[in-house]
């Protein structure tokens, strides 16, 4: 058995980001930049007004003074002249401040008099209510770095910096192969003593949430030929994920079935719970991650290993899932030598501290408690017992979009 | 000007969830359930083994005893007989425990002897390593409630409870109309004094992240006819969102342009920053939300009003964005009568407390700082100045997927 950190390190070390493709801006949301976005324009493009009012020479615009309005500058329609002594130009938010003006008289501080004259209600400070050219960003500036997964706000920033196309990493194709005589797809006839398969479609959703394209393969029965044939069909994937068939029982066929197909094992069995049986290797050119058949184990291993693997393939910085500090909402027993991940509900106490309360039952067959959990409390190998209120480290599941 | 809470209440009060549609399980990820998911099977379907080993009568399986192996029960292949006195059945994880047996002898605690005999290494406790029928859920149980936005784990739970199809709310169609003579799409010619339009595509990504289908309409110039014609083209949307044209300036045409089209205003102007100009009303049958033209204001109003509106349309419980408690990473000035939302970076201090540090410059034209922000610090109207380290309430932006 190898440790969780070492296993993740070996998985990530064997993977490389997919190459870049060009996508239209609206398709880039949630994708990972393959190149930085370099601003092609300066924003604002010139000094502009931050308010509706009048562009003025601050030296003239003292309280009580009268100014002559010589023109108007709506946004997108710059005033073509300049503001001379005793003059003002009507201006609107976002419009370029005309030459000569160095301050903005707010609309509500200007009284409109007869004959195109306004009277200043409040003295204007030089530079006030002017947004300087380049206040947000300047042409040539890298506004978004390579490796960033693009948010809605980033899409806005890329648009504002005048990019209609972005270079992003191709979404990795992830083959998903569930194995087992005992499993059936939802709605299909269930074999005697069998159950409904949940792993493939839960993992497919996890893959989508992490930016990959899932390819769900037909369920493989516990038969060497079937497993080998289906695994072959997965060639061309950036990663093949199997579930089931990885434990030590007599009926664990994945390893033996794939051997003749050229499977090179790197490691199997890791010191964690839920999820001891885990296979990592390479099937010809395709990296293969073999997850446990147990649904909770499969998804927790998905969080610990598959999401970082997807991040690496997508071109993001790949690392252990982000954790936060919390206090234990219940006493925790001493841990054995396997790294444990306790399903927990998160809340905030009166002092504003995050509280992580584990479900009383943690059996790895209980998918409902995983669906209800807000996070996973980390229990390192041989961790001592902890009282309620002790500090714990938690992976928040909502962060991961799963 | 009306208050933020009142504005949100009036918006939500005017919206109703979209009707249900049936989608295949893999398409249901990220969608909102229109009906609860009722388990159609019991999981586990019978008492099953939690480990690889031997199904035994615990009374017989005392340390040192010899048991005769009378058969095998792989998962999906139940043993058809029963376990009699002095007998054992080879069993694998997930397989049904045969009648007669009431405990599991772990594989590593059994020594295989000649002639189909095993010797018990450790006394078996009754019930140990048996997962009881229904431990996870029982047929007829509501495993997922209506109104829930489905995670990857939920997809697994729906599959395990034998649903291939789910009833979800139809994704709401959101028309997005950016207005202004001064804006151009990325890559298109930029008018003199103009800027590149970022609102429509940032809001489209926000709509997608919140479960809607964005329909980006062509940019409308500041011309009554153009605005009215394009708004008409948006009929059939569940909600029309406009940006720009909502403020008090001479060139704010949306309200006047839409009047002849049957626009009924509910309110405009709210006491918040960024984002004072906001329109809410109804264009014939279509609710209309008019956001400010400023990109930061548009997106912050998107967080405060549009995401809750999308939640309501999608069938989720709609409410104010979730906030967390944090401590201020810098002193905060007193606030005026507008509810303020300070862009901030989030971190954790040594004591595990969340720290929210506002960017020094908060000008509402600075989109880059919004893209860099992890959260928005809430400053209620007339809030007093606060020293560094004071308690503040924060909307974490990552939670919102934007």
Structural overview:
Two copies of one chain form a homodimer. Chain A is an alpha/beta fold and 402 residues long. Chain A has four domains: 4-17 and 171-314, 3-Layer(aba) Sandwich (Molybdenum Cofactor Biosythetic Enzyme, Chain A); 21-43 and 145-169, Molybdopterin biosynthesis moea protein, domain 2, CATH 3.90.105.10; 48-131, Beta Complex (Molybdopterin biosynthesis moeA protein, domain 3); 324-400, Beta-clip (Beta Barrel), CATH 2.40.340. Helix content of chain A is 18%, strand content 29%. The first copy, chain A, contains seven helices and 26 strands. In chain A, strands 7-4-6-5-9-8 form a six-stranded mixed sheet, with no helix packed on it. Chain A has a six-stranded mixed sheet with strand order 16-13-17-21-20-18. In chain A, strands 22-24-23-25-26 form a five-stranded mixed beta barrel. In chain A, β20 and β21 form a beta hairpin. In chain A, α1 packs across α6 (295-314) and α3 (199-209) runs parallel beside α6 (295-314). The longest helix of chain A is centred in the C-terminal third of the chain and has 20 residues, at 295-314. Chain A is elongated, with a radius of gyration of 31 Å. The two termini of chain A are 28 Å apart. The model of chain A has no long low-confidence stretch (mean pLDDT 92). Chains A and B meet through α2, β15, α3, β22 and α7 of A and α2, β15, α3, β22 and α7 of B.
């Amino acid at each position: 058995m190898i440790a969780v950190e070492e296993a993740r390190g070996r998985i990530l070390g064997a993977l490389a980001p997919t190459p870049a493709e060009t996508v239209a801006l609206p398709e880039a949301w949630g994708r990972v930049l393959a190149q930085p976005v370099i601003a092609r324009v300066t924003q604002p493009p010139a000094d502009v007004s931050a308010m509706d009012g009048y562009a003025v020479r601050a030296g003239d615009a003292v309280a009580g003074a009268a100014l002559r309005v010589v023109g108007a500058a709506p946004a997108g329609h710059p005033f073509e002249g300049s503001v001379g002594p005793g003059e003002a130009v009507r201006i609107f938010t976002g419009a370029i401040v005309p030459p000569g003006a160095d301050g903005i008289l707010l609309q509500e501080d200007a009284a409109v008099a007869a004959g195109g004259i306004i009277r200043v209600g409040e003295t204007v400070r030089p530079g006030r209510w002017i947004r300087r050219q380049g206040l947000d960003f300047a042409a040539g500036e890298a506004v978004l770095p390579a490796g960033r997964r693009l948010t809605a706000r980033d899409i806005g920033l890329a648009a504002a910096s005048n990019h209609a196309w972005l270079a992003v990493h191709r979404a990795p194709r992830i083959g998903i192969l569930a194995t087992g005589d005992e499993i059936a797809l939802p709605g299909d006839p269930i074999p005697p003593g069998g159950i409904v398969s949940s792993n493939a479609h839960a993992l497919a959703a996890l893959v989508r949430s992490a930016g990959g394209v899932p390819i769900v393969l037909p369920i493989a029965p516990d038969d060497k030929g079937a497993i080998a044939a289906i695994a072959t069909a997965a060639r061309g994937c950036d990663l093949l994920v199997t579930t089931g068939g990885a434990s030590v029982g007599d009926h664990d066929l994945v390893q033996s079935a794939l051997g003749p197909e050229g499977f090179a094992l790197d490691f199997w069995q890791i010191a964690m719970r839920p999820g001891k049986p885990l296979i990592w290797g390479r099937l010809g050119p395709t990296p293969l991650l073999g997850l446990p058949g147990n649904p909770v184990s499969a998804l927790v291993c998905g969080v610990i290993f598959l999401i970082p693997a997807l991040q690496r393939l997508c071109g993001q910085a790949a690392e252990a899932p982000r954790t936060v500090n919390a206090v234990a909402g219940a006493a925790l027993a001493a841990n054995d030598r396997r790294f444990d991940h306790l399903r927990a509900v998160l809340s905030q106490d009166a002092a504003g501290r995050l509280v992580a309360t584990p479900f009383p039952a943690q059996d790895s067959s209980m998918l409902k408690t995983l669906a209800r959990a807000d996070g996973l409390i980390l229990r390192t190998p041989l961790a001592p017992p902890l009282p309620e209120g002790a500090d714990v480290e938690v992976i928040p599941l909502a962060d991961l979009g799963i």
